[in-house]
Amino acid sequence: MGHHVSELERRGVAWTEEQSVSESAGRGAAWTEEQSVSELPGRGAAWTEERGTSDEGRRRLQAPRRASGEQSDLARLEDTRARIAARIVGRERELELILAAVAAGRDMLIEGPPGTSKSTLLRAITTEWGVPLVFVEGNADLTPAKLIGHHNPARVLREDYSADNFVDGPLLEAMREGGFLYIEEFNRAPEDTLNTLLTAMAEREVAVPRVGRVAAQPTFRVVATMNPFDNAGTTRLSTSVHDRLCRLAVTYQDEESERGIVTLRAPLPPDEIPAGMAAGLVADAVAVTRATREHPDVRQGSSVRGAIDLTLVAGELLALRGIRNSGGNDRLRSNDLTRKAYADAVFDAMVVALSGRIQLDETVDSTPETVLREIWEDHFILVPAAAAPG
Question: Whose CA is closest to 222, among 355, 139, 110?
Answer without folding.
Answer: 110
